[in-house]
Amino acid sequence: MIDREAGLSRRRLLAGTGVALAGSAMASVARAQAPAEPPPESDPDFAGPDHHPPEATTPAPETLKAVDWNWVRGQWALDWSWVNLSAMLFASNPRLVRTAIARHRDGLDANPVTYLEANNRPLQNAARQAAGQYFGAAWESIALVESTTSGVGLMYAGLLVGYGDEILTTTHDYYVTHEALRLAAQRNGAMVKKISLFDEARTATIPQIVGRLMGAVTDKTRVLALTWVHSSTGLKMPIGAIAQALKSVNATREPHRRVLLCVDGVHGFGVENETLESLGADALAAGCHKWLFGPRGTGVVFFRPDAIGRFAPTIPSFLAPNAYGAWLGNYDPGANTGARMTPGGFKAFEHVWALTEAFQFHNMVGKAAIAARTRALAGRLKMGLSQMPHIAVRTPMDPNLSAGIVSFDVVGQSADAVVRKLRGARVIGSAAPYARRHVRLTPSFRNTEADVDFALQALSQIKG
Ligand SMILES: Cc1ncc(COP(=O)(O)O)c(C=O)c1O
Known about the structure:
binds pyridoxal-5'-phosphate
């Protein structure tokens, strides 16, 4: 059913185009590797600009006007004998990102100290700028982290709340949010309240979700801790509508009592055509090694500049320009920033620095095109599944309440058994580690209609 050979030969044909496009983009990234500033790590008093001048490292979104999805698919080095519907788990990288990682790895292997000194701060800041440009957010308020989990952990551990304050979350959120809140509350004394927003995701509505949430906000509520796209059912939360509803609550509150909207954004980030502004979140954490197909071990936390003062760093920063100066001079490092929220320490820098190319690749293909493609493939999958009597789809059909995750159950079979059988048919999906486990298939913009049809065909054979 899947014409993999056609895909492969087309890929070979188009490989040259890819190299040429990537080449021009990489040339401008390479220019960012010759910083004018001395490395702060070797000069503790150095308090130079926390800003490498913006480079035109990101081609305009128009670069690939009419998207050739075969070309896009050909940027991956996947084993094409599998149908990979697993974008929500762990990324493999497109060529542009692979090449950037390899270039930095070679530089570090040749001379780790000089390569690090020459590149570290400018390339971390270039990655923050690329993230800010991609997500319409102020780059100075972006922290670089290693995963969604570490981002969510830092976001909630850093909340400046205390005894008597309430944090409102839901029963639908993932382990990472619940556990980060539990651990944070043990230290800060705040109360974590969990509510249910619906019985079945499939039939949930936006007014119902917003109404239940706002109905649970009290005078003591300081934070809403939510997830953009639930990884159990694939329901996409109406974050924009929730932010809108919060505005009237916050309008009469002093700044330190305002309800903050904090989001685990990983399953919408790299999928949806939104910005931090359009969502209206105060803080959003997302791993970059899932739908964004960025380097493994990377993530970001976006803060609104007017909200970042409600958080404090947890791990000492190496990136803040006055980090060492404040330590040695024994003075307060000052207002919170994305650099201060970025954990310090030596890292797999070849991955951190290559984040820029991940955003570049998404911009090249186009955020709107990626969102539309993902929506179309997920819609096709949901439609096909809903026509099979032995399958119960758990994800809403409405694209306003869903993104790329498609969750379902096969009547009479455990989710794990179905995932195993799908593997036997060379389709990669997963089961969610929740109390109610569903099967999840997650088409992304590197998949084709044929991939979806192949998975549907395999599922039609998997009956109780
Ligand atoms: C909602 C949600 N948040 C966080 C994570 C963990 O992401 P990461 O591997 O980037 O820490 C997952 C699952 O992988 C998830 O489903």
